[in-house]
Every structure is written in C-alpha cells, then in structure tokens.
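Re: the 141-residue chain
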Amino acid sequence: MQPDLRAGRFVFVSVPTMVDGVHPLAWVREDEGTTLILEQPEADGLGLSYDFVAAMITLRVHSSLDAVGLTAAVSGALADAGISANMVAGYYHDHLFVPVEAGERAVRLLESLSGTVVTGTPAAAGRRSEDRAGLSPSASE
C-alpha cells in the first residue's frame, strides 16, 4: 500500500455553491450543498467553518479502480483500531482522511496490513463511478 502521511491539516467544508478562488483537493456536489476538501489554512483564511481536522494519507500503490476489497480492508482495519476514515479515490491513488491526531498511528497500522491486501492490476482503465462521481479533475494529485 505504501501509505504516505502528507504534510498539512485538511478540513471538509460545506458551501452552497463553489467558491471562486479556492483550491480544493477534491469537491463533491450534494443536494444540500458543495463539500470541499481544503487545507485548513485556506479554509481559515476564507472564514469557512468545519468540524473535522484530518491528516491525509495517500496509498502510493497504483491500485486498479475496479479492484475489489482494498477499501473494505483499509477501512475495516482502521475501524478495528478505533480510527475513523474518510476515503477518496483518485485515478492513480486512494486517499484517506483520518483524525489529525491519529495520522501516524494509522500509517503504522496500514504498513503492517500492506502484505495482506491484494490491490489489483495497475493497468486497469475503467473508473468506479461511485468513487468518481462529483469529484473534480483535481481530486487526484
């Protein structure tokens, strides 16, 4: 899996519509509004409120978008350890957002899990519509 704890603190904010001049890592359009994943300093600078401050972990392995079981294995292992996780799939990598104070512990747990998860073939060309729906092209790195 090659989990990589990214530098920074990340937040999820909800706005009625897309905000001009923001640089979201990803965004999702929902019936209730638009969810943006931003670096915390950008959200603070724009005066946007949030409830959850996260560490971002990128799984550096290029997993197939149609692979079965990676999300379940990762989220299950983190849940068993009492760590909440929000996953976002990019074209090349999966990204996890865990409570900022649990970032390093989550990486260690994922490193120990790495040898037991099959991630599929890197050459898969298809996309999982349920993971890509509503994500901006910038959702992947």
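The radius of gyration is 15 Å.
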